[in-house]
Automatic annotation (TrEMBL):
Residues 30-243 form the Solute-binding protein family 3/N-terminal domain. Pfam families: SBP_bac_3. Gene3D superfamilies: Periplasmic binding protein-like II. It comes from Silvanigrella paludirubra. This is Transporter substrate-binding domain-containing protein. It comes from the Bacteria.
């Protein structure tokens, strides 16, 4: 039987702790979380979990990093990354507030252009929507031009659980307009929603946003650096374009 002094036991404990920490950082495995109802970028009902999910998976495979991917309610998943229960979440637009809570990749994997979509063919610019009803999907960022017209008391806002509910709200004339990008519009169009032809695009660009993967604050910085380096190369490939523009 081996007998250890208190000093030897302390050294042994630190050695075991070091091995565990090394195993965690060197395991080449990430716990990822995203959400549903952000078609075509993220939804477990879509092929490979959506466009953005598929791109992230391809990059991690090229880096020989294994992963698990869970689909949870958006706010819950994001909070679990903030609290280091998951390693990363996506896709998110970079904001000042979020940058204080998580570490964003420096490489955007998807660029999106947002427009107003409405059930009124006669409205052709933003000012025309004063006094209308805007449908806002829970968790979505409200673009500055929309915020501006919402400052007018006569412009109202209703909130729905997801963007598809806003689409149906506009079709049923419960609301007048919402903000989508072309990827989303094309995805809903493929769903053959009844009376979808009621919806018209106002051909004025509201904003251009970039979507990123966001990592927990205390993750090894080398992981983000390696991800960014591979992402820079991957977004230039034909494989990326095939996934990104599969619409």
């Amino acid at each position: 039987m081996f007998c250890f002094t208190i000093y030897q036991k302390s050294i042994l404990f630190l050695f075991i702790l070091h091995l565990n920490c090394f195993s965690l950082e060197g395991s080449n495995s990430l716990k990822l979380v995203t959400g549903n109802d952000y078609s075509p970028y993220s939804d477990e009902k879509l092929k490979d979990g959506g466009i953005f999910s598929s791109i992230v998976k391809k990059i991690l495979i090229k880096l020989n990093i294994s992963y698990t991917l869970d689909f949870l309610p958006w706010a819950r998943g994001y909070d679990m990354v903030k609290n280091s229960k998951y390693d990363a979440t996506f896709p998110y637009v970079l904001t000042k507030e979020r940058s204080l809570e998580v570490n964003f990749s420096k490489v955007s994997l998807v660029e999106i252009k947002s427009y107003i979509f409405t059930n009124n063919k006669n409205k052709i610019n933003i000012e025309d929507f004063k006094g209308s009803i805007y449908c806002h999907s829970l968790g979505y960022f409200i673009e500055k031009p929309i915020q501006k017209i919402l400052e007018y008391n006569e412009t109202k806002k209703i909130q729905k659980f997801d963007q598809l509910s806003c689409i149906n709200s506009i079709i049923n004339f419960e609301s007048d307009f919402t903000v989508l990008n072309d990827d989303q519009y094309n995805q809903y169009k493929k769903m053959k929603i009844k009376n979808f032809n009621v919806i018209n695009k106002v051909d004025i660009l509201i904003n251009i946003n970039n979507l990123y993967i966001a990592f927990r604050k205390d993750i090894n910085g080398d992981i983000i650096k390696k991800f960014d380096e591979e992402a820079k190369n991957y977004i230039k490939t034909d494989e990326y374009n095939k996934i990104r523009y599969q619409n």
